[in-house]
Write a structure and sequence with these properties.
6 strands, 38% strand, 2 helices, alpha+beta
Amino acid sequence: MRIRSWLLGISVSFVAVGAWAHHGWSSYDAGKLVKIEAPLADVRYRNPHAEVGVDYQGARWNVILAPISRMESRGLPASALPAGKVVTIEGYPRTDGVHELRAERITVDGKTVELR
Protein backbone atom coordinates (compact mmCIF):
# COMPACT_ATOMS: atom_id res chain seq x y z
CA MET A 1 0.00 0.00 0.00
CA ARG A 2 2.86 2.34 0.81
CA ILE A 3 4.43 1.75 -2.60
CA ARG A 4 1.12 2.52 -4.34
CA SER A 5 0.83 5.81 -2.49
CA TRP A 6 4.38 6.69 -3.43
CA LEU A 7 3.81 5.81 -7.10
CA LEU A 8 0.57 7.80 -7.15
CA GLY A 9 2.37 10.81 -5.69
CA ILE A 10 5.13 10.61 -8.29
CA SER A 11 2.58 10.24 -11.12
CA VAL A 12 0.61 13.28 -9.96
CA SER A 13 3.86 15.28 -9.77
CA PHE A 14 4.74 14.45 -13.37
CA VAL A 15 1.28 15.43 -14.59
CA ALA A 16 1.45 18.74 -12.70
CA VAL A 17 4.92 19.55 -14.08
CA GLY A 18 3.78 18.69 -17.62
CA ALA A 19 0.71 20.91 -17.34
CA TRP A 20 2.78 23.79 -15.97
CA ALA A 21 5.38 23.46 -18.72
CA HIS A 22 2.73 23.30 -21.45
CA HIS A 23 0.86 26.39 -20.23
CA GLY A 24 3.85 28.36 -18.98
CA TRP A 25 2.81 31.63 -20.62
CA SER A 26 4.43 33.64 -17.82
CA SER A 27 7.74 33.53 -19.71
CA TYR A 28 6.29 35.92 -22.31
CA ASP A 29 6.12 39.71 -21.91
CA ALA A 30 2.39 40.51 -22.13
CA GLY A 31 3.22 44.21 -21.88
CA LYS A 32 5.18 44.22 -25.14
CA LEU A 33 3.08 43.51 -28.22
CA VAL A 34 5.19 42.78 -31.30
CA LYS A 35 3.78 42.92 -34.83
CA ILE A 36 5.64 41.07 -37.57
CA GLU A 37 4.80 41.01 -41.26
CA ALA A 38 6.95 38.41 -43.01
CA PRO A 39 6.85 35.31 -45.17
CA LEU A 40 6.62 32.01 -43.35
CA ALA A 41 10.05 30.38 -43.40
CA ASP A 42 8.78 27.07 -42.03
CA VAL A 43 5.51 25.65 -40.72
CA ARG A 44 4.90 22.91 -38.14
CA TYR A 45 1.15 22.29 -38.08
CA ARG A 46 0.95 19.81 -35.20
CA ASN A 47 -0.28 19.37 -31.64
CA PRO A 48 -0.17 20.64 -28.98
CA HIS A 49 0.33 23.97 -30.83
CA ALA A 50 1.07 24.84 -34.42
CA GLU A 51 4.33 26.74 -34.83
CA VAL A 52 5.83 28.79 -37.61
CA GLY A 53 9.24 30.29 -38.20
CA VAL A 54 9.72 33.84 -39.50
CA ASP A 55 12.76 35.99 -40.06
CA TYR A 56 12.55 39.19 -37.98
CA GLN A 57 15.25 41.72 -37.04
CA GLY A 58 18.02 39.55 -38.45
CA ALA A 59 17.03 36.38 -36.60
CA ARG A 60 14.76 33.37 -37.11
CA TRP A 61 11.85 33.62 -34.67
CA ASN A 62 9.77 30.66 -33.57
CA VAL A 63 6.10 31.66 -33.29
CA ILE A 64 3.75 29.60 -31.11
CA LEU A 65 0.26 29.61 -32.58
CA ALA A 66 -2.87 27.89 -31.20
CA PRO A 67 -3.83 24.22 -31.05
CA ILE A 68 -4.72 23.02 -34.54
CA SER A 69 -8.31 22.19 -33.55
CA ARG A 70 -8.84 25.84 -32.54
CA MET A 71 -7.19 27.17 -35.67
CA GLU A 72 -9.28 24.92 -37.91
CA SER A 73 -12.51 25.81 -36.11
CA ARG A 74 -11.69 29.49 -36.66
CA GLY A 75 -11.05 28.97 -40.36
CA LEU A 76 -7.28 28.51 -40.51
CA PRO A 77 -6.47 25.03 -41.85
CA ALA A 78 -2.94 23.84 -42.61
CA SER A 79 -3.43 24.63 -46.30
CA ALA A 80 -3.71 28.36 -45.44
CA LEU A 81 -0.15 28.43 -44.07
CA PRO A 82 2.29 27.27 -46.75
CA ALA A 83 5.95 28.20 -46.44
CA GLY A 84 6.55 31.48 -48.27
CA LYS A 85 3.08 32.91 -47.52
CA VAL A 86 3.32 36.48 -46.20
CA VAL A 87 1.41 36.85 -42.93
CA THR A 88 1.07 39.40 -40.16
CA ILE A 89 1.50 38.04 -36.64
CA GLU A 90 0.87 39.91 -33.40
CA GLY A 91 2.09 38.48 -30.14
CA TYR A 92 4.31 38.64 -27.11
CA PRO A 93 8.06 37.93 -27.04
CA ARG A 94 9.81 35.78 -24.45
CA THR A 95 11.22 37.66 -21.49
CA ASP A 96 14.55 35.78 -21.57
CA GLY A 97 15.63 37.02 -25.00
CA VAL A 98 14.98 33.76 -26.85
CA HIS A 99 13.64 34.57 -30.34
CA GLU A 100 10.15 33.22 -29.71
CA LEU A 101 6.73 34.82 -29.85
CA ARG A 102 3.40 33.70 -28.35
CA ALA A 103 0.95 34.75 -31.06
CA GLU A 104 -2.37 36.35 -30.16
CA ARG A 105 -3.58 36.76 -33.73
CA ILE A 106 -2.49 36.06 -37.27
CA THR A 107 -3.65 37.71 -40.49
CA VAL A 108 -3.57 35.59 -43.64
CA ASP A 109 -4.91 36.84 -46.99
CA GLY A 110 -6.64 39.77 -45.24
CA LYS A 111 -8.41 37.52 -42.70
CA THR A 112 -7.46 37.99 -39.03
CA VAL A 113 -7.79 34.95 -36.77
CA GLU A 114 -7.77 35.39 -32.99
CA LEU A 115 -5.73 32.57 -31.51
CA ARG A 116 -6.44 32.84 -27.77
